Each structure stands twice: as C-alpha cells, then as structure tokens.
Amino acid sequence: MEYNFKDGLDFAKELDEKDDLKEYRNHFYLKEDEIYMDGNSLGLASKEGEKSLLKMLDIWKEEAIKIWNIENGKYHQYSKHIAKKMAPLVGANENEVVITGSTTSNIHQAISTFYKPTKERYKILVDDLNFASDRYAVDSQIRIHGLKVEDAVKVVKSDDGKYINEDKIIEAMTEDVSLILLPTILYRSSQILDMKRLTEEAHKRNIIIGFDLCHAIGAIEIDFSDIKPDFAVWCTYKYLSGGPGSIAGLYINEKHFEKLPGMAGWYGNKLETQFQLKQEFDHQEDASGWQIGTPSLFSMAPLDGVLDIFNEIGMKKIREKSLKLTAYFMYLVDNKLSKYGYKIDNPREDRKRGGHICLTHNKAYQISVALRDLGVIPDFREPNVIRIAPIALYNTFEEVYKVVEILEKIAAEKIYEEYSEIRKTVI
C-alpha cells in the first residue's frame, strides 16, 4: 500500500480525524499521562471485557452451582459460546475452535495428539527464532516418547538471527519429519510466515503442520478455511485484550475430529454422557473434545465482551489501520531518528509485517527504561530490540508522533546514560 505521509504534529492529528476507528479508543482504559505501546505483550482492559467479567462475578454470587444450568447451559459450554465469536478471526468453522488452557498446554495437547513417531519418521521440525516456551514443549514431548532431543528435533536456523527463510524450511521437510511447529509472526522481528505455502508443502509430504498465532491473532487477517493447517494455538491476552494470563485458543482442523486427543479430560467428553462419569472416555468429535478440565469462567469472561468489538469492526479494517500506524512510525524513524542510531529491523512490506515494530539500538534496554519514565510503555527483547506496537483499536497517530519525539529526545540528550545496562524489570 502506498502512503503519503508528512512530518509534523498537525499531520498526525489530521490522520486521527480521518480515522474510521477513532471512536473505539473510548472503549478501552487509557491513562491521560501515558502512551501505551505494549499491546503486543498485554492488551489494555476494555469496558466490554470489564462488564462481562463483573457480570460473571454477579452470576456466581447469585447462582452458585446453578451457574452451569442457567441461560440454557451457556456457562457449562462457555468455550463453545466464545469459540463462535473467535472463529471469524481465524477464518475457521466454530466447531474447529476451542477456548481452553494456555498456549503451551495447547501445544502439548496438539503434539501429543498428532505426533506418532516411527522408526522412519520421528522428527519434529522447528525454527530457532520462535518463542522459547514452544521449544520447551516440543523437547518435552520428544522425551516423553523416549527419544533424544538432539536426534529428534530438527532446527531450521536463521541466517541472520532476525528472519526465517521459508525456502530453508521447505528444504528441511524431509522424509524423517513427522510434525512441524512454526510461528505465524516472529515475536522479535515481526516477520509474517506464509502459512498457506508452508502448509501446502508440508501436506505434499504427508507431514502434520501447526502454527503459533500468539503475535498474529487480532493483528492480521487469517483464513484457515483457505490455509488448512492441521492445528494452531494462540494466546488471547495480547492483541485480543483478554486480560493477564487469559485463557488460550486451539484450532483443530475438522478432518482430524475422529482422532483421540493425546491428553483426554472430562470436558472433552460428549455432553450427553459427561455426567455419567464412565471410566471410558467418550470423545466429543469436534474441537471442544480437546478440552481437558473445567473451564475457567473468570479467565474467559473478558474475551466474551471484547470479541464483540473485533467482530463489529472486522479484521480487515483493523489490519488496515494497524498497517498504516506502523508504516507511519517507520516513516518518522527514517526521517527523524536514523541519525541517532535507531534502525527498523522488521519487514517493510505490508504483507510480510505483523502488528508491531522492531526498533533496534545498541542502547535499547536503557532506552526502554527511559521511555517508561517519560510516559511511554514499550517492551524490550534481547539483545537490542525495542518493540513498539501501536494498536488499531486504541492508539492514535498523534501518539505515534509523540513517541518518536520522545525517542529523539532520549537519544539527542543521551538520557539513556542515566540508566544501568543491567536488566532489572519485566519489560
């Protein structure tokens, strides 16, 4: 997409005036003296989410155990209720989505379901830039099968420590590979992988493939009806603003519904026989059959509210504004900050860039701490990355401009020298 940006605060305000989504900013809790640019780590609380959570608390106080039967059993099958709202965000059928567990526990669930190593085909293919927890889960599953990690985990290494070469991934899809787990968007560099291409290549070789959508869900458009991966996992506390540690999502392609989950639990049992409590698992043959234990209603409730916003707007419009915000930030960095040692280390192309900016500097950690003291909330990733995530639902172009001004001030006045290089805080 072509953008015709100009420098100056007045131009930023002009962009905000023309913003079709500007009214949604009022749906979130923002601080007057703070510019929040960390929605890629933890999204801001929404008023809809708050209302839904407080309603759940009131229902518990009023109904106690009867909560499971009111509203036609809505809260007993709350995952299905929320899955119906979540499915459009990944372009899936609602019965292919389940709201359950955490990202890592869902990786364990998916791998334990689909990973069936044989003497000839026993390797799990991963990359070396994915979030570490994904690798921990993969290695753990390898050990459970009595295999050695160094033998059974096949790692496609990045050439530059920033991006993943998709050709190298495809080249690594050899006959000994049983399963592939990859990120959709790299959490450091914001690179988007071509899920459709990788899925097609994996399936040509009869390899199971799944994706971690943690930095993609709610940030980019996803269409699993077209991509058709075998599984996917995601968290809901980043772009989706589900709340700290909110419950995660799991996608199971409907072609696999007849498979038994690797980790069965009573909430994956068919509804009709669930309370018969038989000693033999009666699998519900849709994604909800991959649930394990009783759902955490308080963890799910904020999602119930905030997903209404996403579905009211639609991911197409959200993605369009997100791209424009990040493109504007890059324009300002190029024109105002590059002389101070700041660099853009994420893809420039819209189709390859996720929802956050990867801004690098050799004093990145100190600058990140200085930003917080000056009213800007970013986050830092080793070794030299300041992640800036202007969120389409609640950040403005004026805020982007002001953040760049503050970054310039920190560098020009060498304010970062006032801060230690030793990392002490979670940012």
TrEMBL record:
> According to the UniProt entry, what is the EC number of this protein?
3.7.1.3
EC top class named in words? hydrolase
Keywords linked to the UniProt accession:
Hydrolase
Indicate what this protein is called per its UniProt record. Answer: Kynureninase
Species of the source? Miniphocaeibacter halophilus
